[in-house]
């Protein structure tokens, strides 16, 4: 059995959190004869929880046969200096424990370092060099482009140039690069780093493996994890949003659209999720007498498949301005929405648009309440046959993003670097 190590600062098991991409890959790769171990930080992202390492540099656990190594890191809150220290402690922790772990459990044949932040991918390259094995860099979010787009750092500043230089180094020295958004490869061309533009990065070593959903588990969850909510049982036209209620998700725009549709008594807006804007949204519903909006608050993730399956249309609600959507979408939510077999409306028009490709939803050219209300009415007024076809397209399209399919793509990447 070959050994594959995955470094992901924020990875979790089903018992420790929702970041399950690499847990799912590990499960499926085991079936292909690849023993896959995931290395993550013991400080769990955005939860405040900690996996106790009992004072040791790491703790190894197995969940359903998948080995997880939680590396001891410093505590952090928010996005300030304590988070930077946490990133550094994970980076140095990986470098520190790799040799001893390999002596005890066996040396890896391939290592993949996964962002969000690039230090994890750099650690993957450095540890792979130590063991003389190939390194794969996985890019789940383009850093530092994401930082530039939020306006936190200017690209032409000294820090911006240093971050870009580190990103370029990472891509040059990777044996393969996996992007989760189809258009992320365009970034390398735009920067002039590919061989065609005189750079050192051969685009043939770049691959696309999006996020996805475990369809078997998803459909089982619909049957067993039923949320008792009378609004979900009603015969109304249910406009459903699930996710965090925060500025980047622009939930206020959804309330504005609901206000425009108050005359349509059969249309109800069901919003599931918590976040730092929940109280503000609750105040708006009360003050503006939005009797067609129901803010449900936080619900356990296990109920999400059932909620989505009871909708009439599911809303991908984003801010146009706080992210670069031209490269596509790798949101787990998108594929959960598709698997529900219901039409989707996206409040942003994305590049490499999956909704267009599978003809399973509509996208707004302009993110205004008027445009959103218009598209909701368009779905509401579809002939029954047309609506059913769009719903079926969503469900069929989700099959291309089942983790068994995605793992096969990753498996081919692993084979490609092993040959080299």
Describe the secondary-structure layout:
Blueprint: E1 2-8, H1 21-30, E2 34-41, E3 58-63, E4 66-71, H2 81-105, E5 110-114, H3 119-131, E6 135-139, H4 145-149, H5 158-173, E7 176-179, H6 185-191, E8 206-208, H7 215-224, H8 230-233, E9 237-242, H9 251-260, E10 267-272, H10 278-287, E11 293-297, H11 304-309, E12 313-316, H12 332-339, E13 344-346, H13 354-358, E14 361-363, H14 369-380, H15 384-398, H16 403-419
Parallel strand pairs: 1-2, 1-5, 2-4, 5-6, 6-7, 7-8, 9-10, 9-12, 10-11, 12-13, 13-14
Antiparallel strand pairs: 3-4
Helix pairs in contact: 1-16, 2-3, 9-14, 12-15
Short description:
The chain is an alpha/beta fold and 420 residues long. It is 41% helix and 17% strand. It contains 16 helices and 14 strands.
- CATH architecture descriptor name of the largest domain: 3-Layer(aba) Sandwich
| CATH class membership of the largest domain | Alpha Beta
The CATH superfamily of the largest domain is Glycogen Phosphorylase B
Terminal Cα separation, in Å?
A: 19 Å
- Write down the CATH topology of the largest domain: Rossmann fold
The helix count comes to 16
Number of domains: 2
Rg from alpha-carbon coordinates: 22 Å
The helix/strand series, from N terminus to C terminus, equals: EHEEEHEHEHHEHEHHEHEHEHEHEHEHHH
**Structure classification:** alpha/beta
Nearest-integer average pLDDT: 92
Descriptive account of the structure:
With 420 residues, the chain is of the alpha/beta class. The protein has two domains: 2-212 and 402-419, 3-Layer(aba) Sandwich (Rossmann fold), CATH 3.40.50; 215-400, 3-Layer(aba) Sandwich (Rossmann fold), CATH 3.40.50. The protein is 41% helix and 17% strand. The protein contains 16 helices and 14 strands. The chain has helices at 21-30, 81-105, 119-131, 145-149, 158-173, 185-191, 215-224, 230-233, 251-260, 278-287, 304-309, 332-339, 354-358, 369-380, 384-398, 403-419, and strands spanning 2-8, 34-41, 58-63, 66-71, 110-114, 135-139, 176-179, 206-208, 237-242, 267-272, 293-297, 313-316, 344-346, 361-363. The strands form two sheets. The chain has an eight-stranded mixed β-sheet, with helices on both faces. The protein has a six-stranded parallel β-sheet with strand order 11-10-9-12-13-14, sandwiched between helices. Strand 1, helix 1 and strand 2 form a beta-alpha-beta unit. The longest helix has 25 residues, at 81-105.
């Amino acid at each position: 059995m070959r050994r594959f190590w995955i470094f992901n600062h924020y990875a979790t098991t089903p018992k420790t959190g929702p970041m399950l991409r690499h847990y799912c890959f590990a499960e499926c790769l085991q079936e292909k004869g690849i023993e896959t171990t995931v290395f993550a930080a013991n400080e769990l992202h955005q939860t405040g929880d900690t996996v106790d390492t009992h004072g040791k540099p790491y703790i190894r656990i197995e969940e359903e046969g998948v080995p997880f190594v939680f590396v001891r890191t410093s505590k952090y809150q928010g996005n300030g200096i304590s988070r930077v220290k946490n990133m550094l402690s994970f980076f140095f922790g990986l470098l520190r424990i790799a040799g001893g772990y390999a002596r005890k459990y066996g040396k890896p044949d391939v290592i993949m370092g996964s962002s969000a932040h690039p230090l994890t991918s750099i650690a993957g390259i450095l540890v792979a060099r130590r063991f003389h094995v190939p390194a794969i860099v996985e890019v789940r979010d383009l850093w530092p482009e994401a930082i530039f787009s939020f306006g936190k750092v200017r690209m032409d500043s000294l820090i911006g140039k240093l971050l870009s230089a580190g990103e370029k180094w990472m891509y040059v020295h990777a044996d393969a690069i996996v992007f989760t958004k189809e258009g992320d490869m365009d970034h390398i061309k735009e920067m002039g780093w590919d061989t065609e533009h005189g750079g050192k990065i051969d685009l043939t070593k770049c691959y696309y493996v999006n996020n996805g959903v475990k369809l078997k588990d998803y459909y089982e969850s619909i049957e067993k994890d039923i949320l008792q909510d009378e609004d979900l049982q009603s015969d109304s036209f249910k406009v459903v949003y699930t996710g965090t209620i925060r500025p980047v998700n622009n939930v206020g725009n959804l309330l504005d659209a609901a206000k425009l549709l108050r005359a349509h008594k059969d249309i109800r807006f069901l919003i599931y999720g918590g976040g730092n804007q929940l109280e503000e949204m609750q105040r708006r519903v009360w003050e503006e007498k939005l009797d067609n909006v129901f803010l449900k608050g936080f619900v356990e993730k296990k109920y999400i498949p059932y909620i989505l399956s009871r909708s009439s249309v599911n809303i991908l609600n984003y801010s146009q301005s706080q992210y670069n959507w031209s490269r596509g979408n790798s949101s787990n939510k998108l594929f959960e929405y598709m698997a529900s077999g219901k039409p989707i409306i996206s409040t942003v028009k994305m590049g490499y648009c999956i909704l267009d490709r599978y003809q399973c939803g509509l996208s707004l050219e302009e993110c205004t309440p008027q445009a959103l209300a218009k598209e909701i009415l368009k779905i509401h007024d579809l002939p029954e046959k047309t609506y059913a076809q769009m719903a079926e397209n969503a469900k069929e399209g989700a099959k291309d993003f089942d983790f068994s399919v995605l793992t096969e793509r990753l498996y081919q990447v692993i084979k490609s670097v092993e040959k080299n």
